[in-house]
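PT: before anyone asks, these are the final sequences, not the draft ones from last week. 953 residues across everything. Please model them as a single complex and drop the result in this thread when it's through.
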Amino acid sequence: MNSKDRLALAEWTVNEAKRNGASEASVDIAKNRNIEIEYRDGNLDQLNEATSNGLSLTVYAEGKYSSNSTNDLRKETLGRFVKESVAMTRYLAEDPFRGLPDPKFYQDRSTAKLQLYDSAYESLASDKRIAVAKEIEALTHQKSSEVLTCTAYFSDTLSQTVKVNSNGFQGETRETSFGSGVSLTVKDGDRGRPSDWAWASAKFLEDLHSPAEYADTAFKRTMQKIGQKKLASGVYDMIVDNRSASRLLGGLYGPMQGSTLQQKQSFLEGKIGQKIASEKLTMIDDPFVVRGLSSGHFDGEGMSTKRRVMIEKGVLKNYYIDTYYGKKLDMTPTTGGSSNLTFEKGDKSLEELIAGVTKGILVTSFVGGNNNSTTGDFSYGIIGMLIENGKLTQPVNEMNVSGNSGELWGKLVEMGNDPYVYSGWRRPSMLFEGVHFAGI
Amino acid sequence: MGSSTRREFLVTSAKGLALASIPFIFKIDPARAITAKPGADTLAAYLDHFQVTEATIKEVMSAALAKGGDYCDLFFEHSMSNWLGLEDNAVNRASSNISFGVGIRVIEGDQTGYSYTEEVTPKAMKLAAQTAANIASGGGSSTPVEFKLRELPNYYPIKKSWEEFGVDQKMPFLTTINDRMLSRDNRIIKTKIWLNDRTAYSMMANSEGQLTCDFKPMTTVFTNCVAEQDGVRERNGASFAGRQTGEYLSNDLLTGLADKAVDRTIRLFDAVKPEAGEMPVVLAAGASGILLHEAIGHGMEADCNRKGESIFSDKIGKPVAEKFVSIVDDGTLPNERGSINVDDEGNDAKLNYLVEDGILTTYMHDRISARFYGVQPTGNGRRQSFRHNPLPRMTSTYMLNGPHSKDEIIASVKKGLYAETFTNGEVRIGPGDFTFYVSAGYLIEDGKLTKPVKDINIIGNGPDVLTKMVMVSNDMAIDSGNWTCGKGGQSVPVSLGLPTVKVSAITVGGVAG
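LR: through. Structure below.
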């Protein structure tokens, strides 16, 4: 099925829904081809390749709402699928807040060239994928005879989607994404087998790392764990490296969601215009980053995307409000979920941030833990390094960091200059003052 | 068969309004109805359900093994999943998913090639088989096998499939819970309830001639509530899951769940944070099994051991805990969420001892690992769906009863924590670091439970904590919560359990003293 056929099928399905009594309908059709390669200890370990299809149908009928999906896209069965979806929806309770977006939000769709499709995908053969993974693995393994095991990865996806809303929206995407990396394990005497990894994701093949870069990063990070131990509980300055910092941002992101706010589970309720962090935090939702991993011209509901300042110098400016919760909260919708998040950078590298700390912990990984969106409390396991007088002196593990997101972000004293570009959330490393760690 | 190349698996009856409320019922010809106990006529029903013949399966296997390869299997699956939600006192949202396809795996040595197709036609399946075959090198020819359908036990008998419940029959389950939550305490300001039912038919055939079929029901009820008092809000919830269907959702079960959610929430108004640091922790029976899942479960999955990644890689046969500690993984518990009649590679579900009388005994194996170690399969080769290749996974992981009692365990703690409800956990199997998040519990002071506590992460080291399980009670319980385990990009449903256990020292993420 090509994209023209997909669009025709989506339109047909929307019309079928209306023919069966839906007042409004929305259809998404997606086709994904996905390939994954694992290369371990000198051998090809795993080779996965497949193509999947899916159709989802959102029904609004007699003031009621449901959402239904299937991977059987044949018209003869789809007809029945649509009929039953609409029939079933009628049994639910009415919900006056449900409906498609106001069509005014479909206007002014950006036409900026985002570069989300890499034509290099078309000529990428599996031998090449395997060769790249093989080289990454070999270079990593060669680093030391202490390497117990090492697995390199290469994966890519071609994703093609179409979306049709019955009140006048049509949109299509065709995107590639690539990922590669390596993980390795070394022995640390009787203490265990520390492991770490390096990874990059990108929309374009050429933006992945070189095999040597993966090997260097993963090996360095793993060796940094030899001799790790837990320290005394106490108050330390905390640097979170850019790779790990997304976990802390989650403590703000969840409470910014419309559903969380409306269900009274957000400690950020009523705080638009208030300072919720230090001036170092400026967080922008930017759907137009060229080759950005979460870039796009329209959001999950079809509303045209916009660049929005979510937090400006510590002041909360916007929530993530979709059409439904916008109606429930009597707020203008923004968008239901993040696209790319970009941050106002500082001027220091991670090394420079470390050099400026007298007594602190560099967190290189969070392990489990959770946060309570209602109160803002959080508690996470950590792995990292002790910082003493500007130097990394002792690998650290088996400790927890606890606090409250309402207070933590007031202690943000520096943002790094190193945004993590292998995720939609392009966060830099961050330095916080006076954070409590639990250990011995 | 007409022009349809495969069976329609979305069929509705025109028989009346009640049935229109049923999302996508699929009914097999009653003369070949799938009964609780599989038999010879079951195979015909399953082949018919997936519209394949044994001859086609053999052709696909030949294609799969044409480039070499020691082994191949085909995993057919048809699943139907429905979610029904209550928010702001109305059952006003529903979601459904139908998924159908076949996954084809080729193994050479310990290397895996995998592909899948959603079109269960000979042509599409052969193409997927050729793709999976690329893992092998050199030529090969396979000897055609004769399939033998294995009769399986049924660990999750049910009377009425979810396929026969209409939306109108499900809605009262949610309103019953909601009414109870709101009436139990007038500080409750918000409630949110979800019912998820899933039904899956699967059929596995392999190049050794094994053929197994299974029918898997699953029910999950998830509740959440927010209470407000003097401008302060707290939230908590409770869940239930099991391989059951709607007939099991009695009034007692539903109101019991509502009570649990409300009581856990209200208690939090009085909750404090414990002091941070190492302290004794008493794990309440049941859901505390999450500690076993993280501390030892993942580290005992055979794949990470054969790769040398796990801290348990060199510890089989060694003492790892007190003699009264035995930890098992057991796929055979009646109607539990983690139970399987057969694993997704055709091997029998079993009770396997991970730790027997304090000695590290058996890894949990998939086919590749069992062959690598030269042992019998343990029935732990599980996959999320036909789109995924099997990996060693847990089923229901629990500890057997020990010699102590709950009362003496709590009385033995001068200053510590009683951990009761949990939301999630994680492990790094190399160093053995694991954590679990305590959403509710109590301080223990001078041998008594005192103030409630909340929102604490606990972190420990697997082998270390095993040695520090100094008291084990005789009140083992399996938690019936909605536990889902993620590994390698795949999720599978699991269960866990524990008697009341005392860990002499573990790091609690509290606040400065």
